[in-house]
Design goal:
With 132 residues, this protein is mainly alpha-helical. It contains 4 helices and no strands. 81% of the residues lie in helices and 0% in strands. The model has no long low-confidence stretch (mean pLDDT 86).
Length: 132
């Protein structure tokens, strides 16, 4: 958990560094971002220190597992979006390419059928004492 928090604080610190650098024309907003950046750096260092304190031999492994977990979740989001796009494309192709011939055949068959009910001979039904 601390590894995940450390990586989140590190990402936030890098974002606030960018925000601070972009605000060259507005010194008041830049000062606010500088103060937030100071807090984020403190949180980043604090979570890393606590991670090293709790797990001195394995803290690097925990950080790598947290990074890999974030990469895996990013991959899953990308794969889900890609799967959605591909399925939409395939369904659209099916709707406009595969379905029309079946609709045409159904209309053609419907024109050949006699409208209304068709009487069935009583011999066909036979005895209704068994299913088949």
């Amino acid at each position: 958990m601390l590894a995940f928090l450390h990586l989140s604080e590190k990402a936030a610190a890098s974002r606030f560094t960018i925000y601070r650098d972009v605000m060259q024309h507005d010194p008041l907003t830049r000062a606010i971002f500088e103060e937030i950046l100071h807090d984020e750096r403190f949180h980043m260092n604090y979570t890393f220190t606590q991670l090293v304190r709790i797990s001195p031999e394995r803290h690097r492994r925990h950080l790598w597992r947290a990074r890999i977990s974030r990469l895996w979740k990013g991959y899953l989001r990308l794969a889900t979006a890609l799967a959605g796009a591909i399925s939409a494309l395939i369904l659209t192709i099916q709707y406009f390419v595969v379905l029309p011939p079946f609709a045409w055949l159904a209309k053609r068959t419907a024109r050949r059928e006699v409208p209304g009910w068709t009487r069935i001979s009583p011999e066909r039904n036979g005895s209704l004492k068994r299913q088949y």
